[in-house]
Here is the input.
Amino acid sequence: MKKLIKVENVSTVFGDKVVHDGLNLSIHEGEIYGLLGPSGCGKTTLLREMVLLQKFDSGSIEILGKKLENISQKDAQALRHQWGVLFQFGALFSSLTLRENVALPLVEYTQLSNKMIDEIVKFKINLVGLKPEDANLYPSEISGGMRKKAGLARALVMDPKLLFLDEPTSGLDPISAREFDNLILKLRSMLGLTIVMVSHDLQSIYNTLDKVAIIDNKKIVYEGTLEGIKNAKSDFIQNFFGDMNE
Here is the structure.
């Protein structure tokens, strides 16, 4: 399988606080890959570094063959069109309807006609399990689960190869969370996506992930499948995956 993301010896420092001290991991095409670890370990920081929202201090991150540490503005823009990001709370614009939110990347970055944009938006809204009439609602008029789905539709609207999800099931009730897990699996198989996900939701981790990297004490303490995790040595792993390791 082809490597789509390579993280090599990445270090991140905020002031005098070291967040990452030489992280190494690789993500292959078609995987659903989880970034796990205790609160404050730098999972979301690493995700933000991967999507060019934050700089790292040393090391290398390569995505789709491009190294991020010395990337040109033109290449960075081209890369951004090849991934979608779902932020933890959906990050929808409150003054726009769901349709307008989902359409935004197409309006900003393509020369497509309004009719074509409308067709694509209808398709993506349906794809994530929202009803056609939901498109006319504003973010304040819908539930947290619907906001996540609308955010996901927007993340998918440019037909990305990569999808980044930050705590996709946080704030959802258990039924909505499991529905979201199934949606992630369905989209991966339908669209051939590679998905990188930060999560604390143990059930979601078991339901969806092929591989995980666990960040603890500034390092990757384990990378591999969930089956292999019982042999890993880390207080976080013992506490978080306790039932599995007994």
Summary: The chain is about 35% helix and 25% strand. The chain has one domain: 3-245. The longest strand covers residues 3-14. Residues 174-191 form the longest helix (18 residues).
